[in-house]
Amino acid sequence: MNTKDFLSLSRSELRSLLENGHPIDPGALDDSEYRGVSLGLPAPIVAMTWLTFRKTFRRDPTTGALRGWNVRMQQAGLDGPREPMCDARGKPRCFGFYEVRDGRAYDMPVAARHGLVIDYNLAGENGRLDPIRLGRDPLVSLDEGRVDRLLGWTYLDLGLARVGTPSYFLLEREGPLSYVP
After folding, report:
1. Distance, CA of 56 to chain centre
2. Number of folded domains in the chain?
3. Hey, which end of the chain has fewer CB within 10 Å, N or C?
4. Is 90 exceeded by the pLDDT of residue 101?
5. Which residues does residue 171 pair with via DSSP β-bridges, in sequence order?
6. Which has more pLDDT, 49 or 55?
7. Mean pLDDT, residues 126-136
8. Closest alpha carbon to 124 in 177, 60, 175, 178
9. Do the Cβ atoms of 155 and 166 come closer than 8 Å?
10. What are the backbone angles phi and psi of residue 46, rounded to the nearest 5°?
11. Residue-number span of the structural domain to which 158 is assigned
12. Within 10 A of 160 (CB to CB), how many other CB atoms are there?
């Protein structure tokens, strides 16, 4: 299945792939970056936000935790150049910092506890009032024993309730980490 094929999948098909995905060795993600592709959202939402983004993974040398962040990308379609949006100083625009944890530690609204969870609440770089802190992304491998193609989904942890969103994403390994904010 190629990247474009994922864009045509229904949310129920994406959910099935997520629930039947494979565990990920967190160490295999160390110091890497992935091209992200938004899936499952209505076209007007994608047009107002983004189709592609970058998601990174870096082992914190002090704590040993697997952490990461998102990078806003120039929107050039699936086949266009992969260029980050930059700030006035020429640095890539990073947002949505997170820590990656074992999915078994989470009560989530899908059967994906066998994977990892990207937890935006654990990263101190997100502001106290930043709504992204409510986000949790279960993440699984689409290919057993490999980390080249990963599938994630976003739900919101509201404390007493977990609320699913229509937002899925495909991650395709691009290579080693190229920028640390």
Report:
1. 8
2. 1
3. N
4. yes
5. 36, 150
6. 55
7. 87
8. 60
9. no
10. -60, -40
11. 3-176
12. 5
Local confidence band at 65 (pLDDT 50, 70, 90 cut-offs): very high
Amino acid at site 122? L
**DSSP track, the chain:** --HHHHHT--HHHHHHHHHT-B---GGGGTTEEEEEEEESS-HHHHHHS-SEEEEEEEE-TTT--EEEEEEEB---TTTS---B-B-TTS-B-EEEEEEEEEGGG---SSS-TTSEEEETTS-TTS-TT-GGGGEEEEEEESSTT--SEEEEEEEEE-SS-EEEEEEEEEEEEEEE-----
**Is residue 135 a part of any domain in this protein?**
yes
pLDDT score of 35 more than 80: yes
Is residue 112 in some structural domain? Answer: yes
pLDDT > 90? residue 115: yes
pTM of the model as a whole: 0.94
129 band by pLDDT with thresholds 50, 70 and 90: confident
In a domain, 181, yes or no: no
CATH code at 134? Answer: 2.40.128
